[in-house]
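Possible regression after last week's pipeline update?

I re-ran a chain I had predicted before the update to compare outputs. Posting the input and the new output here so someone can diff against the archived version. Not blocking, just want to make sure nothing changed silently.
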Amino acid sequence: MCLLLSLGFCTCLQCHKQDGLHRSCWVSLPCEAHPKIQSPMKKRRNSRLMQNGESMGPQTQGPKSTAEEEEEEVQPTLPSAPPAPQSPPPPPPCLRPRLVFHTQLAHGSPTGRIHGFTNVKELYAKIAEVFNISPSEILFCTLNSHKVDMQKLLGGQIGLEDFIFAHVRGETKEVEVTKTEDALGLTITDNGAGYAFIKRIKEGSTIDLLKTVCVGDHIEAINDQSIVGCRHYEVARMLKEQTRGVAFTLRLVEPKKAFDMIGQRTRAPKSSEGKMVSGKETLRLRSKGTATVQEVPNEFEEQATKKVDDLLESYMGIRDLELAATIVEAGKDKKNPDDFAEALDSVLGDFAFPDVFLFDVWGAIGDVKNGRV
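New output (post-update):
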């Protein structure tokens, strides 16, 4: 070994600051001014390796041992994880039996059977299909009575044993009316499919004096302006807006009358085919959404609905048990009038009920709930 190297002396391989030292003993110890570089001996060795075709990459770290080669070539096969057990398929949904209802035309017809409807428009389409008529011919339906009985009017619910009678268009008539007071004495409702009709006539009112106007008449036009497709509250507002002392014209369509020889109608024969006969459920028809089978309204819901229906007539001149039931449903669980008003706006915002009406309805629901009726 070189004595200088053994003594710890060194020189920079780039600038050779320590002159006079043995140049053959250069080592890779840089000075402060230059980075470390390879010695000439290491350069010559690397050059020989490249000439022999050996790689100079960092992965070339000399020949691998036999054990290392075998370790690379033979990779142990790890056992795969057993497949996760498949969950059993969900049980099939519990399907309700198909609901089948019996129906007739109120003026006389054979009995037909209908099913598969979810709202009033679909109901009318099914009835029309059975009797080969247009759905637009049907004015309204009554339950368990072929008479024009507004107490039997089909609203938002049908009992699973109810017999449906469809009242179709009869004669058309025009009546000239002059308002002698603010209210005409009419209560308006609609069939849920675009036809508004007269549900009640107040005794001694302006309309009561016109004997050609009858309960059950469909109001087709006011002053030749068609109102087909309007809701009952819209028609009631139009009538209220007629100028006092100025005559206007109503075009009415009365239901087709039954023949005298029609025998007494009876309830549909009890049948278990596709029908649930518990007698405690009804089919609830909704203007938005699908129909649902639910329990018959309890005593509170029934009484509250009647009270709200009376208020609808007093404030708006309409009768609508379905609308009244929806209002009761929105308010029966609310704690204060503000929550009730907010809930009502979310489902019936189009009606724009006045605040005084909402407070009276809230009071009526509270009276029934607390047994003050």
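Follow-up from reviewer: compared with the archived run. The mean pLDDT is 74. Marking as no regression found.
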